[in-house]
């Protein structure tokens, strides 16, 4: 079964491939469909955006499409950056610029109130219009400075619950086992195993 991952983010594609390893699935990406127009993420939630992307890409490619929308929700900031996680410091902001803005906004927040969670919404759409959705979350807290070189996004400032290392200080295997995307993908994997008899 061929599935198109509705992203050009190479680190995200690597993560999906790792978690779906062993499944009878060939994962393509938007790089395999250079004519696919960008999809405007107009949803007010991660799930709305994932569904918009999955349906648009399935419609363009004629193949099942897997889209995720994910980000960081900081409780002391009322759930921000939320759906704006990737563009928190501006439309073309880098990961480090987004994290730097977050740390600036949280400077005065005491250690005991720095709780946050990563959220991931996955949608898989097929050209006939059918759709399945999956979610995953991981609770944690925001540090005071970036630590670690691995991962991407807000990984260097996020300490998952019960750990004294950020996601960016962990191996890909450690992170995959507890990350929001890892948990959502495991639910997708279970669904695909039922569908393919794997």
List the helices and strands and how they pair.
Blueprint: E1 2-5, H1 10-19, E2 26-29, H2 46-61, E3 65-74, H3 95-105, E4 115-125, E5 131-142, E6 158-160, H4 172-178, H5 180-196
Parallel strand pairs: 1-2, 1-3
Antiparallel strand pairs: 3-4, 4-5, 5-6
Helix pairs in contact: 4-5
Structural commentary:
With 198 residues, this protein is α/β, with parallel strands linked by helices. It has a single domain, classed as Maf protein, CATH 3.90.950.10. 31% of the residues lie in helices and 22% in strands. It has five helices and six strands. The protein has helices at 10-19, 46-61, 95-105, 172-178, 180-196, and strands spanning 2-5, 26-29, 65-74, 115-125, 131-142, 158-160. The protein has a six-stranded mixed sheet with strand order 2-1-3-4-5-6. A hairpin with a 5-residue loop joins β4 and β5. The longest helix is centred in the C-terminal third of the chain and has 17 residues, at 180-196. The two termini are 12 Å apart. 37% of the residues are buried.
